[in-house]
Specification:
Strand 1 (about 5-10), helix 1 (about 15-25) and strand 2 (about 35-40) form a beta-alpha-beta unit. Helix 6 runs parallel beside helix 7 (about 225-245), helix 17 runs parallel beside helix 18 and helix 20 packs antiparallel against helix 21 (about 645-655). The radius of gyration is 30 Å and the shape is elongated. The protein has helices spanning about 15-25, 45-50, 75-85, 105-115, 170-175, 185-195, 225-245, 250-270, 275-285, 290-300, 310-335, 375-390, 410-415, 435-445, 460-470, 525-530, 540-550, 580-600, 605-625, 630-640, 645-655, 665-675; strands at about 5-10, 35-40, 65-70, 90-95, 100, 120-130, 165, 200-210, 365-375, 395-400, 420-425, 450, 455-460, 480-485, 520-525, 555-565. An 8-stranded mixed beta sheet has the order 3-2-1-4-7-6-8-5. An 8-stranded mixed beta sheet has the order 11-10-9-12-15-14-16-13, with helices on both faces. The chain has about 675 residues and is α/β, with parallel strands linked by helices.
């Protein structure tokens, strides 16, 4: 089997988090054969049994295949990664820590780029820092950017571990992970990747979420001697490797010396005087061409260790100030229209994105708004803005791009920050809105979920009221309200009644249309009972999904409030101005799906059968009116078979099928005027 990508996942006693990591890999099945090598480093929590019993571990599994390699003795993450690389069979390789998660579309973009350009040895993207619950950390930029080929950039940190995909043969030139390091392993490995002479490329896309664990970051809240010593060893390793290939200039020496001085001060501040002096000496020895600076560092080492604490703070403050200025300057140079000091990093005005008063930290994800889209840049901007304008804390926006050909980069930059995190998930080809929504559900982290089409907009206070009702009553599985039907310019259509009303528990109501796509909000745990959106449908997807919501046995509540505006596009509605063969076929398939689901649930009576048969008859006549004789006859047979509990009506439908096609257009119009519901709406 030709494996396109090998993902090496080192782990130790992180069984729960590992499940999240594996789940985030699952969408990569679209690439073809992908293997996930779980390199267990002496776990005692049953990680091996979990992997071996996982469905993806089946030898017959196609797409994603889980492989397990474990050791009883703990040897460190680097040893586990090296073991994983030795087992890898993929044309490309990437590393994923077991407490992080991937954004599959970003990784797919990296892999596809590597596959299409044989001159590249590795490609890298961006990641977002999150807390332990995968909520983006306020105020922290994404990590990942292009770098200059100059020598000083060798010691830069331009991508995290999971942010890069390597061509497998190139890893032989880079060499194994340094197993002597207990910290800064990815920084040292990244330097050797740059020194190995390969060609890399940066792709401006998010590829993963990097979980930050309190107390594990050196030099901030917690001092760990082993970590600091490892950073010092990594500096020495990078310096020697750069000197070996003739890539060590003054800029690189100064950069490494600065890192060593910071950690020398940290060691002195924590009472490790011998290690402090040794580190100062190492920093001075880095500067082979800077005798004055080398002398300054040696003199600094003679200062009392009691001054190391405030000296280190001053040095870090200066470094951070320069870093912030350079970051802002880079952003300004990439977009000359962007002001240098935009507080949130968002281009352009954002009148609706003001932070909620009193909010100082991101709230737990309460609601995930899933927006499937394909092109429609201007409408999509308006759609996302309508969510932001709700000013609801704890709401994430998942934009699921379904193979857009228009450039959405500007929107991603515009909505990159603010009160509501906007996450982008893209596929290179179109698979349909149902597939995009299913992808959104898989990525959603909110306790509640709302589906919003990219050409519609939300309006206050509806979403807030539905969310509040769902949170206050744990017995509710979904809430729903009303939407207003408008034209292209969001002007209410004359005579069009709002869509959304309460319904009874009668089986006939299963075939009704009581709430629009954006008119309902679901508890995420309930969606597992409903099942995924039907990806075989090109029309009436929301009507068929709504029927399964009613059949899933959940408890819903109608709230008499407006949720938003439902934009109507002229000529796009089946059975009115434009006939679309694929849409009508989809409606008939939806009717069959609803009938079967109701029968299986024991909720199918004569009235529901008649309601579905009436819809099928309408489209049988529509087929005939447009000259599709075989499809017309098949639809009549479907209507007749649907009426299993109405003997007389079933035979009347069979007689109706014998009428000439010339009558179909007249009868179709009569059916429409008689009040038959639209196709799936």
């Amino acid at each position: 089997m030709d494996v396109i990508l090998s993902i090496v996942v080192p782990t130790r006693n992180r069984r729960v988090l590992l499940a999240d990591a594996i789940a985030s890999i699952a969408p990569l099945a679209v690439l073809g054969a992908v293997e996930v090598i779980v390199a267990d480093d002496g776990s005692t929590d049953g990680t091996g049994q979990f992997i071996e019993s996982h469905p993806m571990s089946d030898s017959q599994s196609e797409g994603i295949r889980l492989l397990y390699s474990g050791t009883e003795e703990r040897r460190g993450a680097q040893a586990a990664r090296n073991r994983g690389v030795s087992l890898a069979r993929g044309r490309s390789v990437m590393f994923l820590d077991s407490d992080d998660v991937l954004i599959a579309d970003g990784i797919a973009a990296l892999v596809n780029r590597l596959e299409t350009d044989s001159t590249l040895d590795f490609v890298h993207g961006k990641i977002v820092r999150t807390d332990s619950q995968l909520r983006p950390i306020a105020g922290e930029d994404t990590i990942g950017r292009a770098y200059d080929p100059k020598d000083s950039e060798i010691a830069g940190y331009h991508w995290p571990i999971m942010g890069v995909v390597y061509r497998r043969e190139y890893l032989g030139k880079v060499g194994p992970w340094n197993e002597a390091l207990s910290g800064a392993q990815d920084w040292e490995y990244q330097a050797r990747v740059k020194l190995a002479g390969g060609r890399g490329q940066f792709i401006d896309t998010l590829v993963g979420c990097w979980r930050q664990h309190d107390g594990e970051r050196v030099g901030t809240k917690t001092f760990r001697e082993d970590y600091v010593r490892s950073v010092i060893l990594a500096c020495d390793s990078i310096l020697r490797a750069a000197q070996k290939v003739g890539r060590c200039d003054e800029g690189l020496e100064k950069r490494l010396a600065k890192i060593l001085v910071v950690h020398a001060l940290e060691l002195g501040n924590c009472g490790f005087h011998a290690a402090r002096d040794q580190c100062f000496n190492q920093a001075a020895n880095c500067l082979s061409t800077k005798s004055a600076l080398r002398t300054t560092i040696k003199c600094w080492s003679f200062l009392p260790a009691s001054s190391d604490g405030w000296c280190r703070k001053i040095l870090l403050l200066i470094t951070q100030s320069k870093k912030s200025y350079r970051s802002a300057a880079r952003a300004a140079s990439s977009d000359p229209a962007m002001p240098l000091a935009t507080p949130t990093g968002v281009v352009g005005p954002q009148p609706c994105a003001d932070p909620v008063e009193g909010q100082s930290a991101p709230s737990p994800i309460r609601l995930s708004v899933i927006i499937p889209c394909r092109d429609r840049v201007d409408l999509l901007r308006e759609c996302i803005q309508s969510v932001v304008c709700q000013k609801l804390p704890g709401v994430e926006i998942l934009v699921c791009d379904d193979g857009s050909t228009e450039d959405l980069t500007g929107l991603q930059e515009f909505f990159g920050n603010g009160i509501n995190p906007v996450l982008w998930s893209s596929t290179p080809s179109s698979h349909g809105a149902p597939a995009a929504r299913n992808r959104g559900v898989a990525l959603a982290r909110g306790q509640a979920v709302l589906f919003l089409d990219s050409d519609d907009v939300l309006t206050a206070p509806g979403p807030a009221l539905l969310l509040r009702a769902l949170e206050e009553d744990p017995q509710l599985d979904f809430t729903y309200g009303k939407v207003l039907i408008t034209d292209d310019q969001l002007r209410p259509l004359p005579g069009a009644l709002p869509v959304g009303e309460a319904y009874t528990a009668a089986p006939v109501e299963i075939g009704g249309y009581h709430f629009h796509t954006m008119g309902a909000m679901y508890r995420k745990s309930f969606l597992a009972k409903v099942g995924p959106w039907n990806e075989a449908l090109t029309g009436s997807q929301d009507w068929e999904y709504q029927a399964r919501v009613k059949l899933a046995g959940g408890r819903g509540r109608f709230i008499d409030t407006f949720m938003g505006y439902w934009r109507q596009h002229g000529g796009n509605r089946v059975g009115t101005k434009t006939f679309r063969l694929d849409y009508v076929r989809s409606v008939l398939l939806a009717c069959a799906t609803i009938l079967q689901a109701a029968q299986q649930a024991g909720r199918c009576d004569r009235d529901l059968e008649r309601r579905l048969a009436k819809k099928i008859l309408l489209h049988a006549l529509e087929y005939g009116a447009n000259g599709y004789r075989p499809e017309r006859n098949a639809a009549f047979r479907q209507a007749s078979c649907t009426l299993s509990q109405s003997f007389l009506l079933r035979h009347l439908v069979r007689l109706l099928a014998l009428t000439p096609l010339t009558l179909d257009h007249f009868l179709w119009r009569r059916f429409q005027r008689s009040g038959t519901e639209g196709s799936g709406q």
